[in-house]
Amino acid sequence: MSQIDIKVEFLGGLDSIFANKRSYEVKVDNTKIVTLRDLIFDVIVKDLLVNPEENYSIYIQDETIRPGILTLINDSDWELEDELDYILQHKDVISFTSTLHGG
Amino acid sequence: MSQIDIKVEFLGGLDSIFANKRSYEVKVDNTKIVTLRDLIFDVIVKDLLVNPEENYSIYIQDETIRPGILTLINDSDWELEDELDYILQHKDVISFTSTLHGG
Amino acid sequence: MTDTLSNEEFSRYGRQMIVQGISNNRDPIEHQLLLKSSKICVIGAGGLAAPCLSYLAGAGVGEIGIIDDDIVETSNLHRQIIHSTSRQGELKCNSAKKFINDLNPHVKVKTHPVRLTNDNAFEIFEPYDVILDCTDTPMTRYLASDVCVLLGKTLVSASGVNTEGQLTILNFENIGPCYRCFHPKPPPPNTVSSCSMNGVIGACIGLVGIMQAVETLKVLQKVYTKENFEPFMLQYNGYMDQSLRRFRMRKRRSDCVSCGDEREITREKIESYEINYLSFCGSRNYDVV
Amino acid sequence: MTDTLSNEEFSRYGRQMIVQGISNNRDPIEHQLLLKSSKICVIGAGGLAAPCLSYLAGAGVGEIGIIDDDIVETSNLHRQIIHSTSRQGELKCNSAKKFINDLNPHVKVKTHPVRLTNDNAFEIFEPYDVILDCTDTPMTRYLASDVCVLLGKTLVSASGVNTEGQLTILNFENIGPCYRCFHPKPPPPNTVSSCSMNGVIGACIGLVGIMQAVETLKVLQKVYTKENFEPFMLQYNGYMDQSLRRFRMRKRRSDCVSCGDEREITREKIESYEINYLSFCGSRNYDVV
Ligand SMILES: [Zn+2]
Ligand SMILES: [Zn+2]
What we know:
- The complex is a heterotetramer, with two copies of chain A and two copies of chain C.
- Chain A has two helices and seven strands, in the order E-E-H-H-E-E-E-E-E.
- The model of chain A has no long low-confidence stretch (mean pLDDT about 95).
- Chain A is an alpha+beta fold.
- Chain C is of the alpha/beta class.
- Chain C has an eight-stranded mixed beta sheet, with helices on both faces.
- In chain C, a hairpin with a 2-residue loop joins strand 5 (about 155-160) and strand 6.
- The longest helix of chain C has 19 residues, at about 200-220.
- The relative contact order of chain C is 0.15.
- Chains in contact: A-D, B-C, C-D.
- Bound molecules: zinc ion (2 copies).
- The site of one zinc ion has 10 residues of chain C, from helix 7.
- One zinc ion binds near residues 181, 252, 253, 259 and 260 of chain C.
- Chains A, B: This is Ubiquitin-related modifier 1.
- Chains A, B: Belongs to the URM1 family.
- Chains A, B: InterPro entries: Beta-grasp_dom_sf, Mopterin_synth/thiamin_S_b, Urm1.
- Chains A, B: Its main location: cytoplasm.
């Protein structure tokens, strides 16, 4: 199948730079969007991130997700998968959560 | 496919009559076990219920699940589905939960 | 509706008033005033009510009624954290009132040191907007639900035993399902467990009580509306892993004897004891703990 | 280990002692004595600590240390329910101590009315078995984690803002991942939000504090073991629906500068301020609220 469905979530307040929406269902052509890196840089940053001039650095730093944001692939830390090189699957849930510091 | 996987859960203290196990993975032949009624009376009561002489009436009353136990099909109240006549699907999650009364 | 906040109230509630995105685009002051003008009544001042009352009082609910005729005992204190060792022997509703008054003197507290009965339920519930069920017996749960349906009040209902708990909203705005929709027939009395027989982890029942406070805030501040409300039940378990399940529940049953199309339960039948909850639910002796 | 319970303790803890199935087949008395002989230290006496302390004290933890140099203010009271209007102006650690002493006089409380620093962290943590992080800043979180790794102590770490919260267990029994394993690089200071800037719903942070109490009980009563422990993070959100997610997290990083194979962080470097958490995390002014 060349079209796959991916759920993308922005938790821990990150939704504030994604139109205040915590969850997106995106359809991608997985002949072009193969890895998580492709999803982040070719879909999320281009289509979902609001006001990129101002907000890009809140989400991305040094060509990866910025420190303080955890990335989860189907509820597992992306370090347990292949991080940016993870190969997307149909129905994957990709979650980004900002680390909270209130007490 | 004639063999399907069903997850069966016993919550709210019901696990006490199912060997203190809250969750079972069962494989059933769905040429024979077609409906939720079949699952309950031909699988759960026969294979999972411990000490049926004593415990049957805690689980079953008047040929259905006894009052005070809620039945959920994939996290939805079975009244939103077809209750005992629900046709089982591969990977269904069937949950039974006793209604709690402590405060 | 009360229409102002004092400076003290602004600084007291400021941290919750600036939380964005939950007020249905209402002005933060208006959102807070919805709480200040609310009257709620909690049945039971035990393990669920302790944290629930704490956070609802802290948040600034205007008036809180507390129905409980029990007294504070040592065995309560591992989970009923609004009471204290020095208040053992006092009525729980009075002890709870002292706690609330000292946490937030803006909250008006009314105590009802009685057991909820067919006789007194209508009179007690009538002045309140929302009722919270924190009790221990199916009898009281049926009674509270029937009375809420007849008075048109939303009922936020919670329970817990051992490491588990359940939470639901009944008769929401007079359109949601009632307790009898979920449970047309009562459970056999020998299958009902209580905290005194089965035990309870204080923090686990406390967590359910806080979930109840969160849901009550959503009702009082009209985060839930007739348009967006969907019947649900939350089921928490604390061990081995902490988990929270959300079950999608049935809507009103058209054949419900309490809230359905042809209703059999009336105020008269309840108050005359023609409807007898004890014989309906069976005769086991339930302790309210 | 303390080896007896008084009659008063039996009736006080009876309801939690009879809960079955969570004690790893230990005798209920032994299971309770594990709490009685435990010493924990809580960093911060605010919105997370309030319910967390209540339930851990209620459950009968033997000794509790509280580190906080703030005083009770009106703006705390919507969520910090162990404090009270009459104790405004008092040190939070003293106010918390009064609350705990009145709830459960069996608990020994030690107050530490200081801010946690490179200077004092080792000395303060040393006598305790388990440390609870209820603080507000990345600086303190890195410091607490580094010190726990060097002292071999388990750290139960929670946080919350707005309607959300997170919870994890760090350096579990000296084999689990530490804060630096999760966050080798600190977040840029402008991306960190606090309760005073972003607001917080009292009941939501309260719920996370109770989850922290439940996890701490599992550590103290050895429900978690080196064999069954798997790194995780719980993420709660209160609105619109209440939800609790469990994320499976990485194990220790072998290249972690704190807990890895070639460790760079030492007690000497911390105490001499060679490791400077302020410059590591950036210079924004964090309020502990
Ligand atoms: Zn009904
Ligand atoms: Zn590490």
